[in-house]
Amino acid sequence: MEHAIVIACQMLEHEIRAALRDTGLTCPVTWLERELHNRPDHLREVLQEEIDKAPPGTTVLLAYAQCGNAAVGLEAHSAKLVLPRFADCVHLFRSERVGDPGQVDCRTLYLSPGFLEERSGILKDYDRYCGKWGPEKARRVCRMMVKNYRAVSLMDTHAADLEAYAPRCRDYAELLGLSLERCEGSYRVLCKLFGGQWDEEFVVVPPGGAIDMAEFMGMPRAAGML
Amino acid sequence: MADYLTQIEAAVYDGDEDLVVELVEKALADGVDPEAIIQDGGVAALNRLGDDFNNMIAFLPELMIGGECMKKLIEMCSPHLQGGKSAFKGKIVIGCAKGDLHDIGKSLVATQLSINGYEVVDLGTDVPTNKFIDTAMAEKADIIAVSSLLTTSQYYMEELINRLSHEGKRDLFKVAVGGGPIGPEYAEKIGADGYSRTAALAVKMADRLLDKKPGDPLVSEV
Ligand code: B12
User: Fold this and answer.
1) Range(s) of the domain holding residue B164
2) Are residues B139 and B105 in the same domain?
3) How far is the alpha carbon of A24 from chain B, nearest alpha carbon, in Å?
């Protein structure tokens, strides 16, 4: 691919590296901090700044998803933008085609390896709250966050050695008092992104355009329990 | 008295529920006005937490725990308040849209409304559209309030409004929407009655909603 750059979410580093390797795409990659997904409005600003740095005529491959509308409103200016048409990374890894609703259970917390890097997310919070409230209350607070959940599911995206992450995922489930499961995922959409196969699974914005909310209408809706 | 209130404010802010219970018990026994405990103790702490959260000084679990302390405080003070049900400004049925389990924001909104004169029926998380309608009918609610943090759940807000219209019930209730990805443009597009950016502004919005007539433009507090 001529004049391409990748803007990549650190949370998906394993899958992105695997897809770059499989497709043989060599181009500059800008990694953005994993914690940005906690603040969609700020993430949008950071993404726009990165897009604006691209020289005219660049194709910007966004290794993201809709991400709580972080991607909505991004302006291409002189670049061309390509973004997977999925709600979030759980759908990105778990959907077999665009509009595939069946693979996401609302009472499950999905953890791909990126979510289990070092002590991040709730495990990091737990450490901080231990200092503040002591271990017993810290645990109670963490469990309160997920009181409506059923399970933690370790997602095998086939991009990392899953067994290396299994012990930390067990810690996670134990801390939260949830059952521990495993599920399958895939980085096939990222391979298509880097391989230039931009079919209906992608939002493609020409120079001068912007990513419109309407691009995501008709996405599968969350399936509730009742 | 001012001393109790400062201490209660600090205990709610710190999320120390045991201390909140102890202080509120003592304060009530010493004749401190329960309304002052709620406003100058609880609300003041929640507002400070909200500001610190927006400025990234406080984090989500702190916000959540502060909210829990507040619930406890209200529970303890309510029996001592003057006036009964007739004092309510209106009744609100609130919940998270179907498929959505993010409830921290929704619960803060529910708490703010309940301490500011509304009777609140909280349906919790993952609430199917029918349940919103059935409960609102049974409770003769004034407002149905829906929270969504998931773009995959936000469509159910539109579904709710369409279903109400379809069943000839649209004018029986005001529909308010909010949550992370929801903005006033979306609220307007789906024909909601009210939108607010924060829990504190939700009270102002609800007050204005009670006077809103069918066909009036969206009541938006941002
Ligand atoms: C905390 C959090 C969690 C916690 C939730 C804890 C809990 N008990 O609520 C945990 C870790 C459990 C979690 C789980 C998941 N999450 Co989450 N989560 C968040 C996060 C970081 C913050 C949400 C929050 O609580 N904000 C703080 C509160 C105070 O703000 P708020 O809810 O917006 O509410 C305020 C206002 O909006 C308003 N308001 C709220 N509701 C209403 C209603 C009305 C009527 C009104 C007037 C006003 C109003 O008042 C509130 C107070 O001022 C967001 C990112 C974000 N910043 O939005 C992601 C986010 C929402 N989560 C996301 C995802 C993907 C998930 C998971 C699927 C992750 C997974 N790996 O499995 C699960 C899904 C669970 C499910 N089925 O619902 C995505 C959503 C993507 C999408 N599809 O739309 C987000 C956007 C992160 C991202 N960028 O990817 N999450």
Assistant:
1) 90-221
2) yes
3) 33
Q: Is the pLDDT of residue B110 over 90?
A: yes
User: What count of CB pairs under 8 Å joins A to B?
Assistant: 73
CA–CA separation, A4 vs A59, rounded Å? 5
pLDDT < 70: residue spans in chain A: 99, 101-102, 119, 225-226
Cα distance between residue B102 and residue B125, in whole Å: 7
Identify whether B114 is part of a domain.
yes
Tokens of B42: 């609880």
Output the pLDDT for position B85.
45
* Alpha-carbon gap, residue B117 to B119, rounded angstroms: 7
- Residue matched to tokens 């807000």: B157
Length of chain B: 222
Question: For residue A221, what pLDDT is reported?
Answer: 85
Determine the residue of chain B that is closest to A134 in CA distance: B16
**Residue A48: strand, helix, or coil:** helix
Residue of A nearest to B154 (CA): A221
CATH number of the domain that B54 lies in? 1.10.1240.10
pTM for the predicted model, two decimal places = 0.95
Ligand 1 centroid to Cα of residue B24, in Å, is: 32
CA dist A34 to A13, B55, B112, Å?
Answer: 9, 20, 32
**Confidence (pLDDT) at A125:** 83
Residues B73, B113, single domain; the answer is: no
Of B51, B80, B109, the one marking the end of a domain is B80
Averaged confidence pLDDT in chain B: 94
CA distance B170 to A117: 49
- What is the token pair recorded at B219? 């009541």
pLDDT for residue B219 = 98
Collect all residues with Cβ–Cβ distance below 8 Å to A216 and sequence separation of at least 6: A66, A72, A85, A87, A203, B151
The CATH number of the domain holding residue B175 is 3.40.50.280
How many domains, in total, are found in chain B?
2
Contact between chains at B61 and A68 (C-beta distance less than 8 A): no
User: Residue B140: which residues within 8 A CB-CB, separation 6 or more?
Assistant: B91
Is B101 within the bounds of a domain?
Answer: yes
Distance between CA atoms of A164 and A166, rounded to whole angstroms?
6
